[in-house]
Design a protein that fits this description.
The chain starts with a strand and ends with a helix. Strands 1, 2, 3, 4, 5, 6 and 16 form a seven-stranded mixed sheet that branches. Strands 17-18-21-20-19 form a five-stranded antiparallel sheet, sandwiched between helices. Strands 10-9-8-14 form a four-stranded parallel sheet, with helices on one face. With 462 residues, the chain is α/β, with parallel strands linked by helices. 30% of the residues lie in helices and 24% in strands. The radius of gyration is 24 Å and the shape is globular.
Length: 462
């Protein structure tokens, strides 16, 4: 190989949830290398959860103003200050990223490599012009947007979730290819602020991984807010003047049609960065989708190598990555390896910050049917509670799935106002193993919106 290999105690690839591991290693006095090509803080801080939710709140405010007449308050939006909206987000985000990096650089037990990396041999990484190795290596390098093989896509300027939120001006129109949570959130953000949005989804309904009742109702609601084309293939794209032309083919139509918009957003999923890292050169096994194969302790197939977060592909959430990071650090650094602990994924929730919001924990009805698990269903509408009536949420509902004999909670799915907050009552009860009585037996504030959760469980027909 020629080059001298620099040895560390710990190498952490990625500065998202991996920072929890690197900081713990450094605190233990271990010589730690942190490898990160981009800004510190990972996808969540720089181009994911946090900036998107700050921006989406502006869309929520705009939607509140548009609907204010329902409550007897006449108001209107007189303008959108796009520059101020952008500054509000990126001044905070970029400052945080720089401060996190600086803190790492100042730690006497840490060495920061601000460069791309790849494996070149067993537990050996090439970082810039250096080679480094360690007894313990943590792969926390995440995923990137998946780009579909669409004719002409390589010849035009398109956007992904990585850069669409940093647009210098608000686009007048946008076509979004994809029908998942990223498409749902971005469609809400841009359309609520006045951009003409069209979603082109290859299948149906939108957010089809959600419980079927949630996904179908969500699709019906948002189809009234912006144009939604379901079961539609994207055949080709090209530049037409100062716009993007997209040729699409609806599955039940013989003729294709052409759409035009100022901006094209590709939101067709994520792929792991294992290929960039060339993990096969260190003997790490991946699954059929390219994610690092890990066991219940976050260990990869090579002793001393661990993987967490999106690149491991168990769940693609920031909160699951944080959970895995804490277990991974414990399992790697515990003195007695017999005391290792399996990651506890019970009651892993998620939410979509669209309008309406969606939140879920546990299994969907279709998953229960596929696994032939017996279940009972409960459902309650927001509008049938006092607070649901007060806020005029006529479409929101809670659906719960329960094991009939034991009353164990199998799943809960919410569509409507504050779904991302309401779901937490169910998460806690599921994690504690309390079952339905943990919710129905608890006193709920009247007339708080959380009563809709209690009543959904009370409505279960066994």
């Amino acid at each position: 190989m020629g080059k001298k290999i620099k040895r560390f105690d710990v190498i952490v690839i990625g500065s998202g949830s991996g920072l929890e591991i690197s900081s713990q290693a450094a605190e233990m006095g271990l010589k730690t290398a942190v490898v990160e090509k981009g800004p510190f803080g990972g996808t969540c801080l720089n181009r994911g959860c946090i900036p998107s939710k700050i921006l989406i709140h502006s869309a929520d405010v705009a939607e509140t103003i548009k609907n204010s007449s329902i409550f007897g308050v006449n108001s209107k939006i007189t303008g959108i200050n796009w520059k101020k909206m952008q500054e509000r987000v990126w001044k905070v985000i970029d400052k945080d990223a720089k401060e996190i990096e600086q803190g790492n650089r100042e730690n006497k037990n840490m060495r920061v490599y601000k460069t791309e990396s790849k494996f070149v041999a067993q537990k050996t990484l090439e970082v810039g012009k250096e080679l480094i190795t360690a007894d313990k290596i943590f792969i926390c390098a995440g995923t990137r947007p998946s780009i579909p093989p669409i004719k002409g896509l390589d010849k035009i300027r398109y956007y992904t979730s990585d850069d669409v939120m940093r647009l210098k001006k608000q686009p007048s129109s946008m076509i979004i290819i994809g029908g998942g949570y990223i498409a749902a959130e971005m469609a809400h953000f841009f359309s609520s602020l006045g951009t003409k949005v069209t979603i082109v989804a290859r299948s149906s309904p939108l957010i089809r991984d959600e419980d079927k009742d949630i996904a179908e109702t969500f699709t019906e609601i948002v189809s009234k807010k912006y144009k939604v084309m379901l079961d539609t293939d994207t055949l080709a794209v090209n530049k037409k003047g100062n716009k993007i032309e997209v040729e699409v083919q609806e599955k039940d139509k013989k003729q294709s049609k052409k759409l035009e918009a100022e901006i094209l957003l590709i939101a067709t999923g994520r792929v792991p960065n294992t290929d960039i890292l060339q993990v096969e050169k260190t003997g790490i096994k991946t699954n059929k989708n390219g994610f690092v194969a890990i066991n219940e302790y976050t260990e990869a197939s090579v002793p001393g190598v661990y993987a967490i977060g999106d690149i491991a592909g168990i769940y693609l959430f920031k909160h699951s990555a944080n959970l895995e990071a804490s277990y991974s650090a414990y399992n790697a650094f515990v003195k007695n390896q017999k005391e290792k602990i399996k990651v506890d994924y019970r009651a892993m929730p998620h939410a979509i910050f669209s309008s309406p919001q969606v939140a879920s924990v546990g299994m969907t009805e279709q998953e229960l049917q596929d696994k032939k698990i017996k279940y009972a269903v409960g459902k309650y509408n927001y509008h049938d509670t006092a607070m649901g009536l007060a806020i005029e949420d006529k479409e929101g509902f809670v659906k719960v799935l329960v094991e009939p004999k034991t009353r164990k909670i199998l799943g809960c799915h919410i569509l409507g106002t504050d779904a991302s907050t309401l779901i937490h009552e169910v998460i806690v009860v599921m994690k504690a193993g309390l079952g339905v009585s943990g919710i129905t037996g608890a006193v709920h504030v009247h007339p708080a919106l959380s009563e809709v959760i209690q009543r959904a469980f009370e409505s279960v027909e066994y």
